[in-house]
Amino acid sequence: MMADRVWWMPPNGALHGVPVDSLMWWNLVILGTLFLLAHVFVLATMIRRKGPVLNRFGVSPKHELVPLIALTLIYAWMAVSAQRLWATIRYQGAAPNALQVEVTGMQFQWYFRYPGADNSFGPTRPELINAPAGNPLGLDHTDPHSADDIVSSVLLLPAGREVDLRIRSIDVIHGFFVPGMRVKQNAVPGMEMHIHFTPTVAGDYPILCSQVCGLGHARMQSHLRVVSESEYSAWLSSHSPTGISGAGR
Ligand SMILES: [Cu+2]
């Protein structure tokens, strides 16, 4: 708990966040140690008057091979473990039964859409976008698939269940960033980007925009509420199928 307050990493609330944080710490420890060793070596060489015969690189030939091999092995381990972790998290799709939620970024707001009882997102049309009238995403309410869609300005998720987010933008490039979930993905107009994770710890987590997307960028914030499965079901059923819900705001 103390480390959470002293250091800059926000508390982790996601399943994949544990190995991500672990790799981050190993990288910091290794690079910090090498940084210190390099300075100690430089100081020692400056202080010592008589040194061994140096080659044209300024290093003793008999002393350069061991550190060189050690450094190569350390850097190779760091690169391979980072690549493997990234591949596990990002190159594999979500499980077929993962919860489906759509995230839409727009200047300067995030909207979250749940597919409703039919488990299918209805069509959206740009000409129907009308935020003051309660339709910021341009849902076509005449379509039966849209009729039960739930649009929220807060992302509510049940703990212990994988979520598959489809991230999009309807104006410029935004950055969907949830530090507490160790999740960051650009929202690009015309593209649908997927990111999946499993929230494990109930609580409130800030959602930010990590791309400077205009004058209101700094206030483009929302929050993720991770709740129990029963609380999530109650929230879903209590919200009207149309319009914007504020998740208790
Ligand atoms: Cu933005």
TrEMBL record:
- Domain of life from the UniProt record: Bacteria
Cellular localization per UniProt: Membrane
**Enzyme class name:** translocase
Against Gene3D superfamilies, the record matches this protein to: 1.10.287.90, Cupredoxins - blue copper proteins
Q: Does the keyword Heme apply?
A: no
Q: Among the record's GO biological process terms, what is one?
A: ATP synthesis coupled electron transport
Q: Which family does it belong to?
A: Belongs to the cytochrome c oxidase subunit 2 family.
Q: In its UniProt entry, what is this protein called? A: cytochrome-c oxidase
